[in-house]
Amino acid sequence: MPTDHGDALVELVGLLAGCSAGPGRLALVSGGLACGKTELLQRFQRHAAASGALLLTATGSPAEQPLQAGVIDQLFHGAGLPPEIADRVSHLITPIAATVNDSGADVRGIHHSYVRPVHELCQILLELSRERPVVLCVDDVQFADSSSLQFILYLRRRMRAGRVVVVLAEWQQPQPTLPLFHAELTRRPHHRIRLAPLSVCGIAELLRDRVPDPEALAPAWHAVSGGNPMLVRALAEDRDAGHETGPDQVGPAFKRAVLECLHRWEAGLLEVARAIAVLGEERTPVLLGRLAGTTPEAVEQAVDVLTAAGLLLDGRFRHPGVGAAILDSTPGTERVRLRARAAELLYQRGAAAAVVADHLVAADRIASGWPVAVLRIAAEQALMGDDVAAAVRYLEPALPVVEPDERLGITSVLVRALWRVNPAAAVVHMDPLHEAMWAGELRGRDAMTVVHHALWIGDEATAVRALAVLDQNPGMLDAQSAAELRIVCQWFHGLDQATAVAADVVADADPWVAAAQAIGTFWTAEFHPDAIASAEHILRSCRLGDMSLEVVLTALLILVHSGHPDRAERWCDRLTAEAVRGGAVTWQAILEVVRADIDLRRGEVVVAAARAETALALLPHQGWGLSIGYPLAVLMEANTALGRHRVIADVMRLRVPDAMFATAAGLRYLHARGNGNLAVGRVLAAISDFQNCGTRMREWHVDLPVLAPWRCGLAQANLTLGRTEAARELISEQMLLPAGDRRTRGAALRVLAAAGEPAERPALLREAVRHLRRAGDRVELARALSDLGEALDTAGEHAEARELSRIAVAETKASFSGALPIPVDWGDGDAGDGRSVLSDSELRVAELAAKGHTNREISGILYITVSTVEQHLTRVYRKLGMRSRADLPHRLSPRTGAAPRAFEARG
């Protein structure tokens, strides 16, 4: 029965107390690796010395085992004997030490050359025991030399005549390392103490003086250490040094303690531990033995030792940090050899391809033949399971050593995998695919990959050439690939030939192709009535890697722009979760932009800006290819609504590919940049952007307000220049176009009202409010409400105007919900007569006062005190030379067509 450390010490102390009244006593202390045997002996030795006993101590060592009388010499020379006895002992030890060690000698018999010296040494001890008790302690007795073992046995047979306590500590193994010594030693009565690992209470007691709340830590530390005292102390040392211990991490002291435990035992133990660390869950006694170069029986014994030491539990390491420490300390060449050998052994036993592939990759030593075949199978399985990172990890090391006839297949899989992580990284592997494409050797998705990648990065020449090959060889594409390619080409509008060729290829009318054709009408004025249902069907059937990203993106945008943003949001969340699980970073980034776009259309501009920034951070700039315009457009539009002019300027300075402007994303970018330029006062630059956007949309026959309502922006710019008639014509033209939505129509009505006669404005703005309220865009709704309030105020309906102004401010605050604190600048103070001399806060107070709000109402709207309102108004009156607030409407000229001040907050 294993003994607790405290109980073991009590037992040893009892033996010492009892030996003074009776015959000598012997205790055999055994325990697992680093179980605390040495510490127990040291605590007992301190007690023995304090009690007045003569203390003789020694420690066996593998390095000194060949030296005869090594342990005997330690026992006597460290005991502090009187000089005359010490000299006598020295003369007796010398002839024993001079003998040649005979490892095959029977330890039960005394070598003839030192029978007399051993006898006299025992007599000396027995004589000394008459004066006071003698305590003889040997730690790691399994490493004692043969002559010292014979001395211990000789003393054992004669110690009944003296007050002697012999305590021997040894490793606990399934079979004794010294069977003959054990047999002779245990023939007579003795005490056997088998040390148990520390219990939870034992750990708490050990930590009593080291940590403030040992009872709280003890359970977790017991789970990590298995009660190994050395590991517990290491955990305490790491804690003192500020290193955290968690489910996946341990500190440096713990790692050192693990290695010290292993190096204390026989060399074979370390080899088995390394094999366990390498094989992990695939371990079996046979595999471990082959990898460690030993037998299954020896492996099972080593596992027992490691389990008793608290390093293993049910055959696996108690904590991942144990295996990591073992592997990290293994020399690099040996680690490579073990990994490569493990891969070979597992392959021979038919292990899963991914398991073998992980070892091959870790070994970083791939040869042609079966290793390449295993890596390819593992990569394809990983892609089927949406583990993109694993697929790339398997394929990249295989490519340099693959046979020529396999290179194309592996390259194709690698390109598709890399594209889902970072499209820019796939560029270096495209040459073999290009050569096969020109030779007409690619089929289906591989052929489409060449066109898709060229379009994504803006390589128009390659895209046109590849589409020409497809035109000449219609059998290269199946129906689904051809249908997908058409939508991909529609996303990249600049290649008219691409769209035409893809349209010719799609001749199959199966359900999938019909659905793809239906959602493809999103890019035309003839929006198919089945497009929404088809979009849902495609999203429901979508799995990452089975479908082009542009197809999924088009389906989502159909839901967004057809008045179903909530459904699009749910699909985004589901697909994003799948992309995160599979490591498909490209998909994550695009889906995050769609979510940002949805937030933008709801007027949740702070969230939209944050999501757009997150999307841009997921992929490197070049990884976005020509699609970089989409996240940048959303980011600019959100920050334009927030009035963050510095951010807008920073985004505009980012370099974008020239070819981007020939894509749908480029249209969004031009429109967003036009609005940004307009917001910062660069009216002519804004007009140029809107006109450029409109020209491209008309030329490509995608003049869809839902995609980029450029006429609204251009009309707003014309209003700023006082060109009211031009603005009215642009909005009237847009109102006649199909494929609009409530949000776009509401925004157009607001601009039309600004361009119309004062008497017409309330009706137009009420209709705009009705559309925008149903569309759910708080930003545009707040603008329309603010404009309606001003129009009603001008018409003399002051009460309703004040109420609408209050609602507009509430909608503004709602659109800013979730934001970090942003310094709000209520205007630039540079428009209209008298405005330039006022500060931003003074101007905002003055505007509200001019609309008839009381000081208390202004206080509530702006979240400032009534006293602050009064101070601002006093300064306004002084600066503008006025006597009362009745003069304010005349001194503050109206800002025709301008966005409400509440949306000019800068970050």
TrEMBL record:
Molecular function (GO) terms for this protein are: DNA binding
User: Domain HTH luxR-type, which positions?
Assistant: 831-897
- Quote the SUPFAM superfamilies the UniProt record gives: C-terminal effector domain of the bipartite response regulators, P-loop containing nucleoside triphosphate hydrolases
Read off the Gene3D superfamilies from this record: Tetratricopeptide repeat domain, Winged helix-like DNA-binding domain superfamily/Winged helix DNA-binding domain
Read off the SMART domains from this record: HTH_LUXR (SM00421)
Which GO terms of type biological process are on file? regulation of DNA-templated transcription
Stretches the record annotates as Disordered: 888-907
InterPro entries xrefs: AAA_16, P-loop_NTPase, Sig_transdc_resp-reg_C-effctor, TPR-like_helical_dom_sf, Tscrpt_reg_LuxR_C, WH-like_DNA-bd_sf
Q: Which UniProt keywords apply?
A: DNA-binding, Transcription, Transcription regulation
Q: What is this protein called?
A: Regulatory protein, luxR family
Question: Which taxonomic lineage is given here?
Answer: Bacteria, Bacillati, Actinomycetota, Actinomycetes, Pseudonocardiales
